[in-house]
Amino acid sequence: MIKIAPSLLSADFKNIEREIKRVEKCKVDLLHLDVMDGHFVPNITLGPMIVEAINRCTKLPLDVHLMIENPDSLVESFVKSGADYLTISFEACKHLHRTINLIKSLKVKVGCALNPATPFSVIKPALKKLDLLLLMTVNPGFGGQKFIHSVLPKIEEAKKFIREHKLKTKIEVDGGINPQTAKLVKKAGATILVSGAAIFKSQNYCRTVKALRE
Ligand code: DX5
Ligand code: ZN
After folding, report:
1. Which domain holds residue 10?
2. 29 phi/psi in degrees, rounded to 5
3. Helix (H, G, I), strand (E, B) or coil at 107
4. What atom of ligand 1 comes closest to residue 113's alpha carbon?
5. Integer CA distances (angstroms), 196 to 2, 41, 79, 128, 173, in order
């Protein structure tokens, strides 16, 4: 079953509560929050304070995507702010198992993201500990970028490995997902689709969510 996680990055932050209510009506599964630090990625977005405020606007599970250096020092604050899923960026972790164990000890779901240029093989040793494998289909930093098609074989490779090793890890994709690319990533094996601009720049959010699901 496909899950849809709208990314608030492309929502109107002046009216964020209204945006959340609008998207909630479309029966989405998760709310995806992009945390950027201006170091790991060339953009700055939101921190624990805003995650906590968003958490008070919704009952949807919060899928917090950390695009930050040294995540260890901040994971506890994000969990306290209401994160249900906490995803770190592989390329920003010096001691991956330590960071994964830290997140697991805080009793939330843990994910790890791979940039488009990072091969699947690097995450194999840690995969069984992960609830989510987030395969980036754009270079992280901004909403509204173009889907990178060369990530498709990596999604297939991950799906095959997960099936063969009977793991429970879910494959999430993020970046340039619209009703056309959704079809491709679903076929390749993704089950959680993050989508920002396609939803929040559309006239009718629910029609777009339905098109993504179908
Ligand atoms: C990109 C973020 C994404 C972004 C996706 O760095 O991680 O979550 O919001 O936005 P779209 O769907 O517009 O590519
Ligand atoms: Zn994201």
Report:
1. 3-213
2. -100, -35
3. coil
4. 7
5. 16, 17, 23, 28, 12
Query: What is residue 202's predicted lDDT score, i.e. its pLDDT?
Result: 98
**The pair of three-digit structure tokens given for residue 100, joined into one six-digit string:** 């994964």
The SS3 call for residue 87 is strand
66 alpha carbon – ligand 2 mean position (Å): 8
Atom of ligand 1 nearest to the CA of 176: 14
Alpha carbon distance 102, 11 (integer Å):
31
Query: Is 34 a pocket residue for ligand 1 (Cβ < 6 Å)?
Result: yes
pLDDT, tens digit, 9 for 90 and up, residues 111-164: 999 999 999 999 999 999 999 999 999 999 999 999 999 999 999 999 999 999
Beta bridge partners of 136: 174
Query: Is 174 known to be catalytic?
Result: yes
Query: Of the ligands numbered here, which is closest to the C-alpha atom of 115?
Result: 1
Number of domains, the chain: 1
SS3 44: strand
- 108: domain CATH number is 3.20.20.70
Establish whether residue 10 lines the binding site of ligand 1, counting it when its CB lies within 6 angstroms of any ligand atom: yes
12 catalytic residue (yes or no) = no
Rg (CA), the chain: 16
pLDDT (tens digit per residue) in 65-102: 999 999 999 999 999 999 999 999 999 999 999 999 99
